[in-house]
Amino acid sequence: MTVRITRAAAKLGPAAPVRAVHLGLGAFHRSHQAWYTACAPEWGIAAYTFRNTELPRALTEQEGAYTLRVPGEVDAVEAIGSISRAHAGGEQEQWLRDLASPEVEVLTLTVTEAAYARPEPHRDSAMGRVLAGLRARHRAHGAPITLVPCDNVPANGEVLRSVIRAAAAGDPAFVEWTEAQVGIVSTVVDRITPAPGTDAAEEAARVIGFQDAAPVVAEPFTEWLLSGNFTGERPPWERRGARFVNDIGAYTDRKLWFLNGAHTLLAYAGLAHGHRTIRDAVRDARLAALVQEWWDTAARHINVDTSEIGEYRRNLFMRFAARGIRHELAQIAGDGSQKIPARLLPVLRAERAAGRLPAAVVIGLACWLRHVQTAEVRDPRAAELVEAARSREPVRRTLIALDHDLGTDDDLVSAVAAEHRTPAPKVG
Ligand SMILES: NC(=O)c1ccc[n+]([C@@H]2O[C@H](COP(=O)([O-])OP(=O)(O)OC[C@H]3O[C@@H](n4cnc5c(N)ncnc54)[C@H](O)[C@@H]3O)[C@@H](O)[C@H]2O)c1
Ligand SMILES: O=P(O)(O)OC[C@@H](O)[C@@H](O)[C@H](O)[C@H](O)CO
């Protein structure tokens, strides 16, 4: 019988004192920020889910320990011990205590794109919790802290700063403190980490030799770029390759347009062609051609050296096709209204300004529309989108819901409508 993973069983040291807090304990935090932090045994993380109670319970039983499996010719398996405590999001008193703790100097976030909105009064939200934590810290002593958003949101630090500014307005002392003592950096984060499948624990026991109720599987590639100033100390993430850069804009476009944009296209076009995973989709020559077409289009607008982009594209294609990473298209297809604007629309706008109608985006939008019309839509704006997509003017109204100017662009509306009438995307 396999043994349940614990710190002692995995030969990890004792849990480190908590000096970092994380909100959004999911698969990506475990494969990325917690992995980077594991290089510094003196930094422990208190990690909070948003609502999930099962995962923190499992991690608590395992003393925070879990395994990261990286498939390859031979699977690499690493036991990670940087999570010192795991909590359910509902543990509000503990959350406020942790954020008010002077020992805590860093708060990382992976809360999904949709969460970066100004909190509404009396409604629980990730931003509401961040604000409550910062207020508790300000009241307690006001020691500096740095926030590190790690979601696929362009200029995520600036977005977070503007949400905090707007929510803090009306309390001048708090505003002054957040401006002076709350550092916020922007990041580009990358490591393909699918949601663990239902067989993840069984697979972990077979490959890893431990019973692990919180295993995670991720690709070998990982990247973390950070830009901005920390107001206090931080874990030495550069030991594992994190890079601190002055200008993060071009890196953001490269990641969000080339990787995430292709993911979003593959999700909707791949589902339309009957595929289930990214690997299946890119092995279909028609969809591989769609990705290349999208990358040719995006390359016209990116401020990165052409040869560097060529290499990035080649590596990306291999990452998409890698064995052992089962990234479900249905997972990526969720929250389209939050993802398409960052991943496809900047390039579409630039193409429209140049008088062109980019075929890959037209196909992507038509497939997204079909998805909204026919699938079970997981999106914070699902009700509104489904109503528009099933109306008498589905293309125009759904595009208007996405972006008013695009929905009033008659040539674009006609092109998406023509594509939408075809039974499956005309690619390849
Ligand atoms: N998985 C990846 O490959 C990957 C790579 C780069 C960046 N990211 C970023 O990390 C985020 C999380 O990815 P994941 O794979 O860990 O997903 P996940 O589903 O495993 O975890 C998501 C976490 O966010 C919380 N959450 C969900 N909706 C929320 C909301 N509205 N408000 C606050 N919290 C919410 C969940 O409870 C959970 O703790 C993504 O949305 C993305 O922005 C993921
Ligand atoms: O995690 P999401 O839902 O924002 O997007 C789905 C994927 O495109 C994304 O997780 C990528 O795999 C990731 O961004 C790779 O670093």
Automatic annotation (TrEMBL):
Transmembrane segments: none annotated. Pfam families: Mannitol_dh, Mannitol_dh_C. It comes from the Bacteria. InterPro entries: 6-PGluconate_DH-like_C_sf (IPR008927), 6PGD_dom2 (IPR013328), Mannitol_DH (IPR000669), Mannitol_DH/Oxidoreductase (IPR050988), Mannitol_DH_C (IPR013118), Mannitol_DH_N (IPR013131), NAD(P)-bd_dom_sf (IPR036291). Residues 247-419 form the Mannitol dehydrogenase C-terminal domain. Residues 19-238 form the Mannitol dehydrogenase N-terminal domain. It comes from Saccharopolyspora dendranthemae. It catalyses: D-mannitol 1-phosphate + NAD(+) = beta-D-fructose 6-phosphate + NADH + H(+). This is Fructuronate reductase. Keywords: Oxidoreductase. GO terms for molecular function: mannitol-1-phosphate 5-dehydrogenase activity. The keyword Oxidoreductase applies.
